[in-house]
Here is the input.
Amino acid sequence: MRSFPWRRVAAFVAALSVELLLLALYTGTEYRRSFAVTGMLKPDGNGIESDAHRKLLLHRAASVSEAIEEPNRIWGDKCSRSDIAITQGPTDPLPNGIPTYTVQIMNVCITGCDISAIHLNCGWFSSARLINPRIFKRLRYNDCLVNDGKPLRNGRSLSFQYANTFPYGLSVSSVGC
Here is the structure.
């Protein structure tokens, strides 16, 4: 009569456990990396957190009827609303369960322009998490100011997190060149 091969079963279970552990560590690392906001950002000269090499979050238009404005660059020295890219995505909720969202605003001007006086359509924007007003503040209904009106240099971005029960549809209303 043969004995049951316990050593083979133990080796198989050990190998399977190691594979599952490595898969869980890899998946967790990718998940944290995709939503990392702090720690990777470096302040620029204005004290604004910027990071041009970060993976952008998915871009979603505020409404289906909203078309992306294509700039008219005959002389190459103008900037337009389409030179500002806004992306936002969900992040971990606050301890009390309120969802949080990370917003990234980036100057993607191809002619190297610095864009100032960036105003966004933002409705009745509010947040349960404090946002630095030099980075983003609501001036009145549907009018939010970015970077305290100061220029956002070409290729730079800034980001912030807000907490609310739903994400706000943010879109550029006006810019200054």
